[in-house]
Amino acid sequence: MFNRRSFLAGATLAGLAAPAIVRAQGLLRDFPFKLGVAAGDPASDGFVIWTRLAPEPMERHGGMPLANVPVDWEVASDTGFRDVVAKGTELARPELGHSVHVEIAGLQPDRPYYYRFTAAGERSLRGRARTLPAPGAKVEALKFGVAGCQHYESGFYGAYRHLAREELAFVYHYGDFIYEYQQDYLYDSGLPIRPVRRYAQRALIDLDDFRNAYAQTLLDIDQQAVRSVHAHLSSFDDHEIRNDWVSDIDNWKMGLDGNDPDAAPPEVFMLKKQAAMQAWYEHMPVRKALLPRGGMVAAHREFRYGDLMAMQLLDTRQYRSDQPCGDGFKPACAEVSGKDAQVLGKAQEDWLARNLARGGATWNTIAQQVTMMSLDRRRKPDEPAKILNLDSWAGYEAPRERILSRFAGLKNCVVLTGDEHQNFCGDLVLKDKVVGAEFVATSISSGGDGSDKRQGTDDWLQLNPELKFANDLRGYLVCEVGREAWQTHFMVVDKVTTPVNTLSKRATGVVENGVAGIRMA
User: Fold this and answer.
1) Torsion of the alpha carbons at 202, 203, 206 and 208, rounded to the nearest 10
2) What does CATH list as the number for 4-130?
3) By CB count within 10 A, which of 66, 102, 134, 397 is most buried?
């Protein structure tokens, strides 16, 4: 229970009385839960619950005093909190932006719970999360969402309100939660448009900058809605730090947005990465094991949904070799076939191999960030040579073949990907043998409204027979997984340049148990 003694025990400022007086004295000048609540990294007996105290989110330190502040939390089996099954107090520390990550355990498997926080006499929004089934339990069905790429300036997050209304076990967020730059104009279907809203900062450099970018994003009520009702499996891609970064390499290329064209040397870039990764941790509902250490986050982890699905969540940025051939979309050079190239790094790749070898699940799911299919990116029939996306697995043929070789020895391998700002899906092929399926989710807002097809899509599909479907609207995926089949529904919205939009199911891709490829329903 929140009381005078618990507050005084956690505070480091002298002369504080009770929570009501704290606010009256101006130490918490407004409602502290403006960034909402979230849950994540579910297990069969619990999950993480998150909030960040920020009465003035866009001000330095979120408008908080530089003191530890106790935050009470409760977890209940009912929405009215009549049956509280767990409770406690966690310190919100200024060193971590007054964020709170509480790891809940001891709950019952495969059921919903509700949670909330209290601090300084104020109570947060109510959140909801669901535990996973018990390890190895026989499970017949699973339904979950996939989303990411949410450039704040490109559009509103109305798709998240639709996603919040879905009945899901969890949401996998593949990254690009924030973008690291402000732009004067964007492109939609190849034409310049004005941003629908503006990032507060031109570019992100230090910890305060990154904190403000997350705060501005989390002030969006549709963003808060989806995080409050579905536990998230959170990852990151490149725009949480810098476009196309890998390892300690700043791969920024000068664009039309006026940002600094000079890439930072590795020792300087790592300082920026350290700040960016701290801000990411402070705003994601992840376990304390993901607290950055020396700027590195142990982001790869496994989630098992009974005996139905084993999901390996990968990190394709921190351990990767530099992009070959100078990066970009261009024909392959000799570096694409480099034997020493890495995407996951040896330790993570070995970890993945061990987990895949364990078996014990009907479906093997690989949740990651960049496209695994090696696709010809030409969209005009008169372009002379095959073009690759060198920031995808297509630029790293040796590690790509190693992963696909492991898939070849397994059944029911499904890869979930983001990054491309478009929907598509297709077969993963190794030496003319289909060894898996890949579903690429479109963006929540990045790329603007888009259209049903990008220019040249029909030519692109003809050049890549492994592709089954392509679409250029915004939205998310809903995956329905059963014993006999996996269905991925491509859910799209008509526009993102207005706050309210209309949702529809654009297509459904199906993978049958024991059949490696995709067919469209």
Assistant:
1) 40
2) 2.60.40.380
3) 102
